[in-house]
Prior knowledge:
The chain is α+β, with helices and mostly antiparallel strands and 264 residues long. The chain has helices at residues 5-140, 143-158, 162-169, 184-198, 229-249, 258-263, and strands at 173-178, 203-208, 216-219, 224-227. It folds into two domains: 1-104; 141-249, no CATH class.
Amino acid sequence: MQIDWITVAAQIVNFLVLVWLLGRFLYRPVTEAMSVRERGIAERLAQAAERQEAAALREVEFGERLAAFEREREQRREQVEREASEEKARLIEAARRDAAEAERGWREGLAREQREFAGALHDELAAAVAFAAGRCLADLADTKVEARAIERFVDRLATLDEPARRGLAGADALVVATAFELDAGEQARLEATIRGALAPAGSVRFEHAPQLVLGIELRSADTRVTWSVSEYLAEAQRRIGERMAAAQAAVHVPAPSRASATDA
């Protein structure tokens, strides 16, 4: 068999040209495309890893935020419960104070009304007793009783202290008031007794004063000397008032029911 070297050479050249063409127009673009694709895949894998890492970090952060939210929610719940408990205690205490204040006001008002009523009652009673005694003594008075009243008044003049004596003796005018009417002779005798006891520098004038109740009063502008049964009646009235006030103070004022105050 005879070899055609020209054909062989042509085939070799064709093969080399084909190889060059394949390498130039097929293999290199394919390899470059594969390289590009590999780089893209690597980049996407890296991005995916980054995203996964970021997602893991966000998951951790979300878990921490969720835990912080739960802690804050628990703290808020405890704070709300504490504030509600404090508000409840405050309202209960305010209600207790209001109830105590209302009870105190009720007791004070009742005690005040009792005192006012008892005071008015014992004042009226004592005044009535004194008035009745005075009327009785006035109705029973006679000349002997009046003379005895004058004697008691003269005794009072004899025991005057020095300031009262000077106040009466140095007055420009003296007034003698009597619960009973005196005739001219009785007035002259009483005036002589007063002048003998005090030696007054001024005049002596008489007037009728039934309110003295069997009494006599000698007065000047700034000094007054009195003897009267009304003094004893006033003392009796004062003692009656003290006894009734003591009895009224001993009266127990019942407090309102705490159960009803709490229910209210």
